[in-house]
Amino acid sequence: MLRILWRAAKCLVEDEGLELSGHLAFTALLALFPFLILLGALAGLLGDAATGGRFVAIMLDFVPSDISATLGPAITEIFSTPERGILTFSGLFMLWTASNGVEALRVALDRAYGAGETRTFWHRRLQSLGFVAIGVVSMMLLSFTIVLSPILMKFATRFVSASTAELIFWQSSRYAIATGVTFVALLLLHRWLPNTHLKGRELLPGIIVTVALLLCNASLFSLYLAAVGRYNAVYGSLGGMVVTLIYLYVNALTFIFGAEINSVMWGLHARRP
Q1: How do residues 193-215 score in pLDDT, each as one tens digit?
Q2: Segments making up each domain of the chain, as ranges
């Protein structure tokens, strides 16, 4: 296993994964707010923007506090004043911008799996737009599960005390939702984005490693920030945004590393021209 990880790390460098991760981090930050604006506008159109905002706030609990403090106010503003009229021409532009993030993921996966892109531009772009639409709808459906939380909590208090039930239910449900959403999203991205055809079992090793590392990244990055602690002295008021980009960069490296693990395990590098 260590040999596979070492070879995957070498391939990550050879495939320009360090440089592609920077592109992924920038594109992810650029696409994040258009995606959330679309989500907020759709939630407002359905009359339940507050629930969508609470779901996004829960997901922010899994990132370091410095990053949550940077992104939190802007996200709160998006969901507190959803614009229903934005689902017109400007909504299409935001949809296009958000799809650029998916295209960046495609480039990274194609490079990791050694897949030459033969599909047309419009084929790829329509697929990326489809992924964004699926993401918006999925987050809307997941946000509605928050409404069910009080009902489930009431059922749990029949067996244990209220305080114990709340603690167990809240902690377990948060991590279960985060892990499940991440796993399914990675499986869909690895399966459909690159111009190659790998079976589910061939994708699982890299996805499992990626999910495990992503869950650890937040804690490790928080420890790093606590040890450094003076990034504001270097970057001033831009410190929070720079730290956010660094965190996205680390997660992008993790994403590409998972694909490289699959590529090494199934000999895709050996078959490259």
Answers
A1: 998 888 888 899 999 999 999 98
A2: 2-265
